[in-house]
Amino acid sequence: MDGLTTSRRDFGLHKIAPMKFHEREPYIPSEEPMDLLSTYKQDFNYIRGSQVGPVKPRDSKFPHGDKIQYLPSYKADYLPWNQPKREPIHPSHNYRPQSTSFENRTTHQDDYALKGLVTTVSCKPAIKTKLCNVPFEDLTNYKMDYVPHPVEKPFVKEAEKFRPCDLPFENLTTHKESFRGLRGEPAKSSKLPAKWSAQCIPFSYTTEAQDKYQAWPRAQLFSKEPIEYIPSDEKMDLQTTTQTHYRYIKGSRAQSCKPLLSVKKGGHFESSTTTKEAYKQWAVMNTKPIKPVPHLSLPTEPLDYQTTTKTCYVPHPLTSTKNYKPLWTGARRNIPVEGQTTYSISFTPKELRLCPASYSEPPGYVFEEVDAMGHRIYRSVSQAGSRQDSCVSIQDPKKPGQKELEVSA
After folding, report:
1. 190 exposed, middle or buried (CB, 10 Å; 0-12, 13-18, 19+)?
2. Helix (H, G, I), strand (E, B), or coil: what is residue 98?
3. Residue 370 parent element (H or E)
4. What is the strand order of the sheet 375-380 is part of?
5. Are 355 and 394 contacting, i.e. CB atoms less than 8 angstroms apart?
6. Which regions of the chain are under pLDDT 50?
7. Whole-angstrom Cα distance, residue 114 to residue 78?
8. How much is the pLDDT for 396?
9. What is the 3-state composition of the chain as percent helix, strand, coil, each rounded to the nearest 5?
10. What contacts 402, CB < 8 A, 6 or more positions away?
11. Do 406 and 374 contact (CB within 8 A), yes or no?
12. Which of 45, 279, 365, 408 lies in disulfide reach of 378, CB 3.0 to 4.6 Å?
């Protein structure tokens, strides 16, 4: 095979000459001095000028040099009137406190009197203890294998001595100085005594659960005999990983590097503060409340302490409700479940047959012809005669009116 390509044939090699680089001329410094003048210095010369005066004209409203009178219209027009002070309009003080002492008892103290304890009867069945004849084995692995070790004496830190303060302690507080306890009479209730109804039905201590759900006889518990403990002959190693690897190294105690506080002793402590000097206690008098004059006329008849609840909702005797719970029919018997279902009764198993079209040469059929669509048509061996009889069904060849067996070529 020729190794020439179109690129090799058309694009041939040419001789390449080496590139020539231009050599720079050496720099020769000039001997003339350098002119440091710039275009700005030559063209823009500095000219000294005088200060320019203001162009804005002078205001002609006020003469120059006179003092302006700053008097607003509010002070000139709105002047105070010399009128006497009005007295405040307030209701007259006609309230007079009652001379009789106030009953300090409450409604709760009158209605809810202290009652004694109610003795109830327990309906719980008695617990019958069953004693076991087998003695209890109180030996454990801890009692048998544990070896007591001597306990070291703990380190006790010496307490520092208390140094009392030289200044006296001021034990007076604002509460002790301002609030002084005054003794008074106990509160009395103003509620009427309770009226017990004559129809008092005794409370039934029996419940529906106690009547119907009785205790069942319990069968005797089966106790399994304990397995006899056989102690091991080997000696138990009581050393742990912490005791073997992390041993106690005796060393000196670490000393604190914190500097000591320099407490200045002596001198008088100045206990006066800004709050004590500026905010002093005032002599305040207790002001009496201003109460309006009542405009309602109170009824002269005594008030009956009956409410809507007491008058309308009268207590009725308790009614015994009927229990509609079905009776206990006992435990269910072990009746086997019927295993018959609709599927197991109505389903009929059928035989699975292999399609004869899956064979290259179906057994029991003879090749007849190939139609225009390219399908291979077979006919049954047992049948002979007309074209209709030669048509083969996939499921049953004996039934007339079924499709012919066709196999694609």
Report:
1. middle
2. coil
3. strand 365-370
4. 365-370, 375-380, 406-408
5. yes
6. 384-409
7. 76
8. 44
9. 15, 5, 80
10. 391, 393, 394, 395, 396
11. no
12. 365
Asked if residues 365 and 379 have their Cβ atoms less than 8 Å apart, the reply is yes
**Distances from the Cα of 117 to the Cα of 97, 114, 193, 200, 205, angstroms:** 44, 10, 21, 18, 15
pTM over cut 0.90: no
**Letter for the amino acid at 20?**
K
Coil, helix or strand for 144?
Answer: helix
pLDDT in tens, 52-70: 777 776 665 555 566 667 7
Helix (H, G, I), strand (E, B) or coil at 377: strand
Q: Which residues contact 331 (CB under 8 A, 6 or more apart)?
A: none
* The pLDDT value given to residue 384: 45
Both tokens assigned to 141:
């692995």
Q: Which 3 state secondary structure label does DSSP give 16?
A: coil
Q: State the Cα angle at 110 between 104 and 116, rounded to 5°.
A: 130
CA 172 to chain centroid: 47
Neighbours of 371 (CB within 10 A): 12
CA–CA separation, 148 vs 140, rounded Å? 15
